[in-house]
Specification:
The protein has about 170 residues and is mainly alpha-helical. It has helices at about 5-35, 40, 55-70, 85-100, 105-110, 130-155, 160-165, and strands spanning about 115-120, 125-130. A hairpin with a 4-residue loop joins strand 1 (about 115-120) and strand 2 (about 125-130).
Length: about 170
Amino acid sequence: MPVSMYSFSIPALRRSLTNLSMILDKAAAHAQEGKIDPAALLDARLYPDMLPLTRQVQLASDFAKGAAARLAGEAPPKFDDVEVGFEQLKGRIARTIAFLDGFKPGQIDGSEDRAIEIKTATRTLRFSGLQFLTHFALPNFFFHSTTAYDILRHNGVPIGKSDFLGPDPH
């Protein structure tokens, strides 16, 4: 099977979001079983100047939908950052996966040389589609997904590497 921009993006993003949703299930169960206020986990940070769990999940969602949309030459949809519980975060992940599922390979394949611009508060970043995917979108997505995992693991949720990686795809 030839390698394509679609196969390097959508399946990986979808799989990791699915795994993140299952990790949130384990976090919710851990809070309930341990009589822990869920807000203690949702507001947890690895360090005071880092973003809390809720924001990490929101950003993972944003980078996933942003990657797919921009590679397809579309504007990413805006999701309001209003989630306050595990079920709402899981709902956001489900909406993100549904968005990803709307893309077909032909919409993303061939985007290696597509000009992509990201405007930040201080500058405009310019990439080819391949640079965007490999140097910006995927690293940012995995940073926030991993940080969400790390926050929960640091706070005693019984998860491990196999939860982050998910079931064997073969």
